[in-house]
Amino acid sequence: MTRNTTGLQKKYLGVSLTLPMKLKEDMNPLLLQVFRSVVWVCSFITFLPWYFLSGAGTNLDRARRVKARSVSGRPAGPYRATNQVGGIHQKLVWSLHLGVDTLDKVMVHGATRFPERDCLGTREVLNEEDELQPNGKVFKKVILGEYQWMSYEETYQAAVCFGSGLAALGQRPQCNIAIFCETRAEWMIAAQACFIYNFPLVTLYSTLGGAAIAHGLNETEITHIITSKDLLHSRLMAILLEVPRLQHIIVVDSKPTSWPGFPRGIMVHNLVAVQELGVAVARRQPLPSDIAVIMYTSGSTGIPKGVMISHSNIIAGITGMAERIPDLDETDTYIGYLPLAHVLELSAEMVCISHGCRIGYSSPQTLADQSTKIKKGSKGDTSVLKPTLMAAVPEIMDRIYKNVMTKVEEMSSVQRTLFVLAYNYKMEQMTKGYRTPLCDSLVFRKVRSLLGGHMRVLLSGGAPLSAATQRFMNICLCCPVGQGYGLTETCGAGTISEMWDYSTGRVGAPLVCSEITLKNWEEGGYYSTDKPNPRGEIVIGGPNVTMGYYKNEVKNREDFFVDSNGQRWFCTGDIGELHPDGCLKIIDRKKDLVKLQAGEYVSLGKVEAMLKNCPFVDNICAYANSDQSYVIGFVVPNQKQLTVLAEQRGLRGSWEEICNNPDMERDVLRIITEAALSAKLERFEIPKKIRLSAEPWTPETGLVTDAFKLKRKELKSHYQDDIERMYGGK
């Protein structure tokens, strides 16, 4: 194992790749020189034409320019984008198109400008079959056809008919209606119907547990809910008796289905049938200040809270986001697969609709050719759709990174050398502002094809993205990968890195719709006067800051405030550092900070972010008690890497038996410790004991959110016995 962790794998934690030592020994010196000569020739060939054609000088100027400044001149801020219309001292931007100040007008704007343009696309299911796995489990596989499209005009008319049908069923303006459904075209049609008819839309994650679902429905006094056939049977049926006000269930699946009896005379309807109920009714057009969405958070810290988001909040948020996507127009195609109940996906799709883009729907299980539900030999959604825009959470990007690196390790020494040389060559050229068309075409074409081959902008949000993964995606996917930072409470908007800024580990400068201040946090030792860069709790202000939590005045007073100018602010609980060019780096989180017995503060999120790049780690949760002197960890190991290690140790057995083997725990702990030292973690931050989990953490297990954030409370309960064992309780 020593050789494996000193070569390519060890560099997973860095931002560059180097030739493994054994690889150097195996290579014929003449052959190695030939490869270096090829790279030099590529440099020469690309230098002259692409220096002039690629705008390298302009790109460098853009990347290096100051992107935000303090309005007050003080290090605490507030900081605003320097490309703010009218300058940093003018009002924040809150509207994308003149007169388009509510979400119903966004759809009307799209249908008016691009009536025949494809709007929402869904792949036809050609066949479904069960596939028996070697471990005895049965996986459902699908064969999918081409995308079937609805135009902007058809989408708008479908939304109008559905909204009038809901009105015929007794739904009233400014009365809440819930949607509990997977990401699909019908979700967006239903949402547009609610925006048009001024029905505040309550969004719930499709993976929430029964108690959380019932809590959200009862708190918002829901009488009508929009759902799918699968979720009705798997989730809603079990809690209907706990939601006494519920009267109507609208199922979005197009095929008519016979329904079993429901308690208290609850009526179940089909989406098409509701659309046919609709008649021309006078609608109450929403005001910008009206609630558009009550979005329930994923509940990473307990019972989910409903965030009240007005029409003007979302308009401001998508205005800021759109400004950071260069050349966004109706020729773009976006792939939607993240939960639409998450503010990142909803905002991204509204940005697309506001610019006439196509939105093709997918799911994490059908995204790529190798996805779990795609039958071997058939195509995943990215191969068919060939999107140009995509939003992703770091969990998915980390998977792509590790899968590609595993394939690189399996290459011949010649192929591996070419890949590494091309990688490092391109990284060097990117820092100079140059493009590398030959490397992109000859070396990275297959990696780029994983997402369809046409991706031009990829936005990461929801959690911090590691520097190594971000650099890898920038290089191998041949498109800029921007990090964004925002919260449900700020409509997902806050900062986004500019697409020509190839620095890593940062989340960019404030958007034109928001501004940021840094608030001193004495307990953590973070101050705006810190050198070389000001640090503190991130506080976001602007028209994108939402109206607060639904029926929760205590939390509203804690987390929101209005300044003397009438502007709303939200205290994020995240700790940031502002760099001289105005870009923000997330360095800590107040809720993740634990004080150990000896007085050292440990940032659990920092430990996890550093160790997730270890090739043996698919996911990790660090844990510490204040009455203990060391950190422990729960680890979902990479099955391929751990299986190889077990074979080298002569261990046999099922996956569960391998994970439960004490020798495996010790070996993985040793590897993690080496990775932690390479990442320059302090000794007290490095886990002293770990527990390997054979079960992956998915939203369905309830241990992570739909955005794959750790649910620390649930993880603690799940591993309580192991916590007691590792801390000496038993």
UniProtKB/TrEMBL annotation:
GO cellular component: endoplasmic reticulum; lipid droplet; plasma membrane
Sequence ranges assigned to domain AMP-dependent synthetase/ligase in this UniProt record: 142-550
Keyword field contains Transmembrane helix: yes
A GO term for molecular function: long-chain fatty acid-CoA ligase activity
Transmembrane segments: 30-52
SUPFAM superfamilies in the record: Acetyl-CoA synthetase-like
Keyword annotations from UniProtKB, A to Z: Fatty acid metabolism, Ligase, Lipid metabolism, Membrane, Transmembrane, Transmembrane helix
Enzyme class name: ligase
Protein EC: 6.2.1.3
Catalytic activity: a long-chain fatty acid + ATP + CoA = a long-chain fatty acyl-CoA + AMP + diphosphate
CDD domains assigned to the protein according to its UniProt record, in alphabetical order: LC_FACS_euk1
GO biological process, one term: long-chain fatty-acyl-CoA metabolic process
Protein's UniProt keywords contain Transmembrane helix: yes
Family the entry assigns: Belongs to the ATP-dependent AMP-binding enzyme family.
Protein name: long-chain-fatty-acid--CoA ligase
